[in-house]
Amino acid sequence: MSDALHDDAISIHRYSFKLGFDWRTLIPPVSLTLLLVLQRIVPVHPQYRPKILPYFTPFAVLLLAGFGIAVLIAVFNDALRKRLIHKSWFLGTAFLLLNVYNLITLKLNLLPSLYFPAPERIIGVFVKDWLFILQCLVYSMRLLLGGFFIGAFLGVVTGTLIGWSPRWNYWVMPFIRIVGPIPSTAWIPIALVIFLKPTDASLFLIALGVWFPTTVLTSSGIMNVRKSYFEVSSTLGSTTLRNILSIALPAAAPNIFSGLFNGTSACFLTLMAAEMIGCKFGIGWYINWQRETLAYPNVYAALIVIAVTFSLLISLQFKVRNKVLSWQKGMIRW
Asked: Which of 22, 137, 249, 310 has its CA 20 to 30 A from that of 277?
């Protein structure tokens, strides 16, 4: 009888929810609540020129509702609770800064409203112009990903040849040291002359921005691999190609990913510059167009889109890196 009760107690304990609460999960909702209270009680400055738009308060309410639901779920979900605790101070500070910016623009009018639009006007751009911004982003991503993969492939190939072959290192490395450090944007006038289409010129410039860091770090990673690994592999009958594919590239993979991370930053900068000068569409072109018409809310909205897109791409690269290099986990600090 006692054994049966003991087994039932174990089963109940196994399937019961483990409740937990941490006050730090309330930091983002409290910060949002403060934002809504000040938005409600502080009047709009009488000299604030643009008309008031009804977007900021509903946006803040949706955020507050989302975080309120997340806090409730976190009581039952240990993983979500830990994530909220880890991000709580950052999110609370971010919402506090948003509150401060809203106060000094909309409520106190301390900054020129033409160049520093209130948050409600930036949100209004997403509400009214989201489809056109999305079309520009899709166009830019086609250029970005095309140039990125071309530059990454050529960078890995060139870096492998330089790191593996002394002859390639002798002839190609001096050229890379001279040409590589030149910013990709400096080649814009030449690229626009060589290529008939601005799109082709943009692809070339983006690929060039990714190619240089990927080449340098790939070659460095391969040259740092222990020679004894190749000697043992060759003794066992491996060919040169097998040594490169099975030993050199896997060992240089951390360096390759570092080159790709640096190349991603470079290709974003190049994309923005190339679209502002040569292309007739895209997110960089959109920023330049809105700047010329003094539509700075649209400029800020496009910058937010770029920041979010860049963050997502970097996060995706980190996930791929962690998956590919899972065998290194615990050996090096990521």
From this structure: 310
Please, what sign has the CA dihedral across residues 263, 266, 272, 276?
negative
Q: Tens digit of pLDDT for each residue in 304-323? A: 999 999 899 888 988 888 88
The CA-atom distances, in angstroms, between 261 and each of 152, 175, 274 are 10, 23, 20
Q: Is residue 219 part of a domain?
A: yes
Do 48 and 186 have their domain in common?
Answer: no
Output the pTM of the full model: 0.82
- For the chain, give the longest Cα–Cα distance: 90
Determine the distance from the C-alpha atom of residue 124 to the mean position of all C-alpha atoms in its chain, rounded to a whole number: 24
For the chain, the domain total comes to 2
Helix, strand, coil % in the chain, rounded to nearest 5: 80, 0, 20
**Which residue range is the domain that position 245 belongs to?**
128-327
Residues 182 and 300 in one domain: yes
Phi/psi region, residue 11 (left: phi>0; alpha: psi -120 to 50; beta: rest), is alpha
Concatenating the DSSP letter of every residue in 197-229 gives SHHHHHHHHHHHHHHHHHHHHHHHHHHTS-HHH
Tokens of 331: 């050996």
Do 289 and 183 share a domain, yes or no?
yes
pLDDT tens profile 213-254: 999 999 998 988 888 877 778 777 778 888 888 888 888 888
Which residue type does 245 have?
A: L
